[in-house]
Design goal:
The protein is an all-alpha fold. The protein is 67% helix and 0% strand. The longest helix has 19 residues.
């Protein structure tokens, strides 16, 4: 969880880069844009000034997004913008998958629009 929390600023930068990439499906771009706006917004479901709990909504959202990106986007495309090594992506993805387990796979498929086509 600590890795995901520390990853939030880099995740926002990565999302911005993915939004510019023509290989990313439109539906995934819409999801990423909404997530970027939420993470950048000072308004949260749980205000950040509440100790520990204040960052919980951001952490869970980051977990769902990382899990969705790893599942539905091409790995090479994701690694192109990932702010670290492939090994660090795998580690963060494993943590994200555990945190995002409560989101049914069919919901993530609907949100992200399925696996990206290989270019």
């Amino acid at each position: 969880m600590k890795q995901l929390l520390l990853l939030l600023p880099r995740l926002v930068r990565m999302i911005a880069q993915l939004l510019k990439d023509g290989e990313v499906p439109t539906r995934a771009k819409l999801v990423l844009a909404a997530v970027a706006l939420y993470l950048a917004s000072p308004v949260d479901l749980l205000p950040d000034f509440i100790p520990v709990l204040g960052y919980l909504d951001d952490l869970l959202l980051a977990a769902v997004v990382v899990d969705g990106l790893v599942t539905y986007l091409d790995r090479g495309l994701l690694l192109k913008y990932w702010p670290g090594s492939a090994e660090s992506l795998d580690k963060v993805a494993a943590v994200a998958r555990r945190l995002a387990m409560w989101v049914p796979a069919r919901v993530k498929t609907r949100i992200f629009g399925g696996r990206a086509e290989a270019a």
